[in-house]
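Running this now, will post back.
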Amino acid sequence: MPIILNTEKRHLWTRVIIAGMYIALTIGGATMVYPFLLMVSGATKSSVDAYDFDIVPRYWYDNDMLYRKYVEEKYNEHFGTYSANSDVDVFSFKDVASPHACRPALGADWSEFTSGPTPTHFFLLGASMAKNNQNVPENLRAFRTELGRQCGGDIRALRRDFGLDIPNWMSLLLPYEALLDRNYQRVATPFMNEVYRFKSVCKPQDRIYVSCDRRYGQYVELIKKYNRSIETYNKLNGTAHRAFAELSLSARAPSSPGEGEDWESFVREFLNPQFISVDQSARPGFARFLERKYGTIDKVDKMYGSAEAGGYHGFDSVPFPADRAHPSAALTDLLDFLKDRDLLRGDALGVDTPEIRWRTFLQSKYATAAMVGQAHGRTYADFATVRLPQTEADHSYCLNNAGALRLHFLTRNFSMVFEYILLYGRGIRNTVIYCLLSILVALLVNPIAAYALSRYNLRGQYKILLFLIATMAFPSVVTMIPNFLLLKDLGLLNTFAALILPGMANGYAIFLLKGFFDSLPRELYEAADIDGATEWHKFWIVTMALSKPILAVIALNAFIAAYSNFMMAFIVCQDESMWTLMVWLFRLQAFAGQGVVFASLIVASVPTLIMFLFCQNLIIRGIVVPTEK
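Update: finished.
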């Protein structure tokens, strides 16, 4: 009998009440959907916009936010790298402002300049590292894919061929390069050789050109005689700079004594040797340096490993080391020789940096700084004031590829989740086996127990049923320790039996099934007895065939219990080879960023949603049919 009669529905107040109920239900639905939409939106974000609580991420319609996300990924989520290689001091990527749009001529010149051959020590590889591995950037993922292809996806082959001691593919990271540090050198290992091969073929827009000018300005600012005052620097050197960031590292020492001394000290003691050139006119001084250090040429051959090739004829035949990237005795001697002001004159030193090559390129194309400024829409007093247009180029690339970047940021966190669960262990395989076995056991044990309670008037069956229902009063965590100790004594830890046996019989499922079986017509069983059917036929052909709706409910509950099982699965299966998907995702959430955590939650909920969609008709029938009967 309905609560509101049809005659009552015609009254105004009744309609108002019904309308209010619908409004309340709509508001209640909205309060449930809104947090979910926030989580979906958060699953596409990173550190720079993680705390923007909006349903539609800002980078979908705000180019400034899109630019911040782009430079955040390109500069490896390290704002110090962005500040060190640009003219902007920031303490967070949230503070990054979009630069002025560059003229087409500037973009064309930069594209022409970067398309040519570039030494690998001139730039860092962008989008290749992540802070605490929170988000796997594009180039790091591409590098893993490349090594995976070479090793056939076998982590053991990777360890063997490249000498790496890593547990899995997600632990494969690109090394940090301190290219501007004086003592930075890379070891010539198969892995580092592959890193630099990969780096040498990267796309020009993925390069982060190191700024030697910026490092030089920071060095001069810390010199005691200037006391961090640009006014003092201008007064002592007769210049008119507004900040130390405007200083530039010239190819040769400046003619001004003060600037020349600063330049020479920086080059001799602080600049990485890969950026330094020494004139051949300094070879006699290098020969005297070696003679004073080793005494005999035989010791030089022994240290340099040149004896097998015939050795050197004398100290004056020893060249400057060509390889200044890898550690060697020759490079150590060169570094010491650079500091020797008696044997090496300052005018024999030269510098080759990205800024110098950029200025040389523009000078050969435009001849004068004024012509460069006219083409680029800038004002240049001379070529020394020309800077690398790295931020402008980043901004231009971001705007020209806005659609592709938005799609990339939309799927980036999900790609990391899928990469993690596919490359890490056997989580998917274990989860599929665990869920299938749990469903199979639940559909076998629980119906048999419920059938016995429904078909036969057992002595004390209500006490048995009360006992089964009483198990619902105790949370599962209460039985974890006894179950663990029992499984340990039986020697079943780290097996599928340890996962399945504790939940094989479920009191609620037996109670639910018994109620459904009781609703089935008794005449069916009497007719089956007359036809001579066995008990198995009556159970399988009559009872189970008519109980598909409630069996679907039991199967869905068994699937959800197995799929979402984390704590018990982690306790009884501590071996990584037996970890289920929930355990792997929990470990991912321990180090991943907030966006990746949200993405993992959405991915984890998809199988349950699909299972419910496929079974919803049977579930509704399982709820409605017993009520109708």
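The beta strands are 123-125, 207-209, 276-278, 349-351. More later if anyone needs it.
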